[in-house]
Specification:
This protein is mainly alpha-helical. The chain contains 12 helices and no strands. It has one domain. The longest helix is centred in the first third of the chain and has 31 residues. The radius of gyration is 19 Å and the shape is globular.
């Protein structure tokens, strides 16, 4: 695939992922309102999405089931981190509006910049500028909330954003040698190994029997589709650019929560939304290429296989 074609694929995949991710807090909030505990919501949507992808790949794309040990460890680590983050994410939705929760979660590019610096991948000046503009937009959107903010919920959501940001560079390293569907599958399976036991240990709320299950089914599909497109974006344009494009999920969350949950933004919050839009539009000036060169001293070097076998069912860098 040409560089231009890879850039187009990466951008379209990142934006598609953002579309689905923007629906997650709204649907998750609806599921909680219908009587599902946050523990049950995160356990069901993650495990069902993982099983759905495993079934599809087992029936139609069995070659993508192969993964080398270092890659499996990388997916396991990313899944463990993101699984913990998703627990904090859905717990926070008990206390925050879907729109405010989504806005706080969108700070993850700021945290991702820090993780990438630790991994010897310092952002460009343009990327740093975009992160600052996006952070300012999110601050205006959050602090100007007319209904106030539950600070316990804020802290839970910020921890979720930090965890989500951490799993992106981990998966980016693995994606250098492994196809996006394979990474998606094993990351989701690892997430399930975290969230399902947590639900069994800590959930004290019975499973609703007479409630509508459509939010859980919808969240499963959103998780399934958003993860596939997310990792495809990371593979072609890198974690930071995918994260910045992913900020467009805010607009999805804001619009859908306004129509569906009757949530609204104040005038200052709309200024923040405009700043986020500016950060997104600046992507046209970025050189969107995934990180490929191993940097000396990087804390994620161990995730990359020293030699990818030539006879694997999918080609290296597929």
């Amino acid at each position: 695939m040409s560089l231009k074609g890879g850039k187009t694929t990466g951008i379209s995949s990142a934006l598609t992922s953002a579309l689905f991710l923007g629906l997650a807090p709204v649907i998750g909030k609806q599921a909680i309102a219908l009587g599902f505990s946050p523990w049950i919501v995160v356990a069901l949507r993650t495990s069902m999405a993982a099983l759905l992808l495993l079934l599809i790949m087992s029936l139609f794309k069995r070659k993508y089931l192969y993964i080398y040990p270092a890659g499996l460890l990388g997916c396991g680590l990313a899944g463990f981190v993101n699984g913990l983050g998703s627990l904090f994410y859905y717990q926070s939705l008990k206390y925050l509006d879907a729109s405010v929760g989504g806005l706080l979660y969108s700070l993850y590019p700021v945290f991702l910049a820090g993780w990438l610096i630790l991994d010897r991948q310092p952002p460009t000046k343009l990327t740093t500028t975009r992160v600052v503009i996006a952070a300012l937009g999110v601050i205006l959107l959050t602090l100007a909330s007319p209904v106030g903010v539950h600070w316990g919920g804020v802290m839970l959501m910020l921890v979720a954003a930090i965890m989500y940001a951490l799993h992106l560079p981990i998966n980016q390293r693995v994606l250098y040698d492994i196809p996006a569907p394979t990474v998606t599958l094993y990351t989701l399976l690892a997430m399930s190994l975290v969230v399902v036991p947590a639900c069994l240990l800590f959930n004290r709320q019975p499973l609703p029997t007479e409630r509508s299950w459509w939010p859980i089914v919808a969240l499963t599909l959103v998780t399934f589709l958003s993860r596939l497109t997310l990792f495809l974006g990371v593979k072609h344009i890198g974690g930071m650019q995918t994260a910045l494009l992913g900020l467009s999920e805010l607009f999805v969350t804001i619009i859908v929560s306004h129509i569906w949950l009757k949530e609204s933004l104040g005038s200052i919050q709309w200024v923040g939304a405009v700043l986020l839009g500016v950060s997104l539009l600046m992507v046209g000036f970025e050189k969107l290429t995934p990180e490929k060169k191993i940097q000396p001293g990087s804390w994620l070097n161990w995730l990359r296989s020293p030699e990818v076998p030539p006879n694997i069912p999918w080609g290296p860098h597929d």
